[in-house]
Structures are given as C-alpha cells and as structure tokens.
Amino acid sequence: MGKVMINTGRTIIALLLLAATAAFAQPLKIGYVNGSRIENESETTKLAIEQIKKEFAPREQQLQALQKQGMDTKAEFDRDADKLKPADRAAKEKRLVSLSQQFEQMQRSYAEDMEFRQREVRTRLVTEINAVITSIAEAEKFDLILQQAVFASGQIDVTDRVIKEIAKRAGAAAK
After folding, report:
1. Does domain 2-174 have CATH number 3.30.40.10?
2. For a surface tag, which of 24, 45, 60, 67 has the fewest beta carbons within 10 Å of its beta carbon?
C-alpha cells in the first residue's frame, strides 16, 4: 500500500509538471509601440500642437511687440544719449529698465503657461494613446505590449495599428 501511495504521488507530481510545462509552452504574444513615431505621425498630436500654437499666438505677438519697443527705445537712447539733458537721460534709462522688466516678466509667464498647457495636453494624449493600445492588446489577445525597448523586431511593432486607431477615433469624435 505504501508503494501505491508513493507511485500515485509521483504520478500526480508528473502530471502537474506536465500540465505546467504545457501551459508555459504556449508562445507569448508580445507587441511593441514606438512612442516617438506616434508623437511625430499621429494627426491627433499634430492637431494638439497646432491648437496650442494658435492659443498662445496672441501672447507671442505681444512679446514680440514689447521686445521691438524695447529695442527701438534702446536704439533711440544710444543715438541721442549725448544730446539728452540729465533728467531726460535718467527718464529714458528708467523707461528702458521698466520695459526690460516687463518683457522678462511677460516672457516668464508665457513660458510657464505654455509649459503647463503642454503638460496638460500631453497627459490627455498619453491617456488616449494608452486606451488605444489597451484596446488593441485586448482585441488581438496580446500578453504584453512594450512602449520602450532597446531593440524591437518589425514583426512585433504595432505602432502603425495604434496610429490608425487613433486617427479612426479622432475622426469619429470629430463627427
């Protein structure tokens, strides 16, 4: 009876090992997504960049106008500095300092707001892209999809499918 129990135990262990081996023998389905390509080729990304440019264009024009005003005032001051009375010279210098400070403050505010807006849009885009990748992974039964790799074969690159699906969803959302 002891031998039967040992043999039965060995048989069960062998069957469990065989089942585990069979489970691991199924090939994994792995995909790769090139994030740089998505960023460069996706119409959604291009539209988002254009939207931000349009949104900040008036402020950029204000900055350029203020910069031109400062340069013109500086050129006028340099040209007429020798002819100016001390009080007028001091007033012009004060005006130049004021314009410079105003420009720096406006430029800093512009850069901060632009950076914030870009982060906001990038977060939204990443969320949308990840949703597309997840839906492709689930639909095509991928075990793993990587977004960063040192090397990825063209056989596992699903970037084109992701770009097409993003475009399709953007087209549906626009309707």
Report:
1. no
2. 24
Query: Which run of H or of E encompasses 98?
Result: helix 86-139
pLDDT of residue 102: 95
**Domain spans of the chain, in order of start:** 2-174
Q: Which residues, in sequence order, are CB contacts of 133 under 8 Å at separation 6+?
A: 33, 145, 147, 158, 162
Give ∠ CA 156-157-158 in degrees, rounded to 5.
110
Q: Give the pLDDT of residue 1.
A: 46
Euclidean distance between CA atoms 126 and 40, whole angstroms = 14
SS3 31: strand
**CA 142 – CA 8 distance, rounded (Å):** 38
Containing 32, the helix (H) or strand (E) segment is strand 30-32
pLDDT digits (tens, 9 = 90+) for 24-82: 667 888 899 998 899 889 888 889 999 999 999 999 999 999 999 999 988 988 888 78
